[in-house]
Amino acid sequence: MMSYFENPATAIGCELIWLATAQHRPPNWRWRLGKHLAVRKSWVPQYWLDDWIRLAACLHCKAAGKRRNEGKLLLSRFPGAIAAFDIYHRNAFQRWELEARLLAGESFDTIAQKCETKREVVDVYHEVFYCVQPFLGTGVHTMTVAIDETIHSGLAEDDVDLLLKYYGYLRGPIFLDVLVDYYRHPPVVPRTARRS
């Protein structure tokens, strides 16, 4: 006999409750809740929903090739939604930089300028894919949930996303600018002289 928590329907229900109500939820909680609405067609109480979650569901449907009538209206109300979706799924370095700048506490206008995008794209990205600014004062939550628990197990130079987020959060925008420039324009290391 299957226990209460082994039942897949119960597990999905528990995750929905956690995503919608937990104080220390993951930064992409709206994106994940939107997936439950769009893909899994989970029932969710209406008072949990806001326009950002509905937008996330609409983007999930659009990615899956499904049409929804209310989707066109939502996309017209949030002109940066498609560009934010593209950053989240297709442009790794821009995604990492944008997330690191959100963790550094920079203004949305500054982030848009430095990431070469529009303010409304940063708004949508923050609210749907990486909502961290309300938690910037909570060190433990930010370090373990918003950045990643693996930050404590050792980093390598190719962990670019974690390094940008970690130093953006701990050192701020000026240090982050230097680090982003280092990864965009890596130093040229001269070839060593050959031994004969």
Describe the protein:
This protein has two domains: 77 residues, no CATH class; 106 residues, no CATH class. Helix content is 61%, strand content 0%. It contains eleven helices and no strands. Helix 3 crosses helix 4, helix 7 packs across helix 8 and helix 9 runs antiparallel to helix 10. The longest helix is centred in the first third of the chain and has 14 residues. The chain is globular, with a radius of gyration of 20 Å. The N terminus is likely disordered.
Features:
2 domains; 0% strand
Secondary-structure map with pairings?
Layout (H helix, E strand, L loop, with lengths): L7 H14 L7 H10 L12 H13 L5 H9 L3 H10 L1 H12 L4 H7 L4 H11 L9 H10 L11 H12 L1 H12 L12
Count of extended strands: 0
Question: In percent, how much strand structure appears in the residues?
Answer: under 5%
Note the run of SSEs as H and E: HHHHHHHHHHH
- Class computed from helices, strands and strand pairing: mainly alpha
How many alpha or pi helices?
11
Radius of gyration from CA coordinates: 20 Å
End-to-end Cα distance: 73 Å
Please tell me the total number of domains.
2
**Overall form:** globular
In percent, how helical is the residue content?
55-70%
Largest sheet: none
Provide a compact summary of the structure:
By secondary structure, the chain is mainly α.
